[in-house]
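Aggregate trends can hide what the representation actually does to any particular protein. In the encoding step, the backbone of a single protein was reduced to a row of integers, each denoting a local shape. The record that follows shows the chain in one-letter code together with its fold in token form.

***
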Amino acid sequence: MRPLTPTSIRAPFARYAHGIEVPAGARLVVTSGQLGVRADDTVAKTAAEQATQCFANITAILAEAGMAPADTIRINAFVTDRAHMSGYMQARDAWLADVAQPPASTLVIVSGFTRPEFLVEVEVTAAAP
């Protein structure tokens, strides 16, 4: 994967790439949006805890395809309030701590999810040979 970070535009605001080029022949995995819900249907209380659970769920999905966080080329995240951005970003940065090249990333503030206790939803696209 090749990061695309043109010098003619502003540098990224955080640890992400403006774009990622995927070589021909790469396998792709696209996850559904993952919520901060555990396998036993309990939900973490804070946005940071929910985001951590979202990324744990994504790690499990990627593992099913023989991939890892380092194979992620794009993150789309959704939070229900600006106040949740910091908790989400802490969880994202922890998930990417061992990843040399950060993926492209988008964070959107939304009005809500299917259940009122959900504060964060995350989906990723990953690519690997």
User: Anything to note?
Assistant: Residues 2-7+15-128 form a domain with the 60s Ribosomal Protein L30; Chain: A; fold (CATH 3.30.1330.40).
